[in-house]
Amino acid sequence: MTADVSDGVETPRGATYVTVGSISDLTHGEGRAYAVGGVQIAVFRVGADEVRATGAVCPHRGGPIADGQVDGAKVVCPLHQFAYAFTDGACSDPMIGSLPVYPARVVDGVVEVAL
After folding, report:
1. DSSP label at 107?
2. What is the DSSP string of 27-78?
3. Bridge-partner residues for 107, per DSSP?
4. What is the 3-state secondary structure (H, E, C) of 63-77?
5. How far separated are the first and last CA of the chain, in Å rounded?
6. Running DSSP on this structure, what letter comes out for residue 101?
7. pTM of the model
8. What is the pLDDT of residues 65-102, one digit of tens each?
9. N or C: which end of the chain has fewer CB within 10 A?
10. Spatial distance between the Cα atoms of 75 and 33, rounded to a whole number of angstroms
11. How many Cα atoms are found within 13 Å in the side-chain-facing hemisphere of 19?
């Protein structure tokens, strides 16, 4: 079974999905950082078989995004509480840069992220 749960994040043409781990490695409502193809990515479990993926480093002051608070639509950086949308990476403060977002899915219990 394949569940594409990128929540509106389009998969770029030519992008390849890369396995980052098992869905069972992720706790609902929490994130985990991975190094994927030289890119630091934070992956969040937001549902039973739903994941979201963003850059792992906050553009404001380099905070660890994977340690942030999560709801279904956003992640909040643990350092200064700026919120970033999972759909487009936009910050709650327009003066702060956006967080990169990546298409992510769960395939047969395996989490994949597209680069």
Report:
1. E
2. -BT-EEEEEETTEEEEEEEEETTEEEEEESB-TTT--BGGGSEE-SSEEE-T
3. 2, 110
4. CEHHHCEECCCEEEC
5. 22
6. E
7. 0.86
8. 999 999 879 999 999 899 999 999 999 998 999 999 99
9. N
10. 13
11. 8
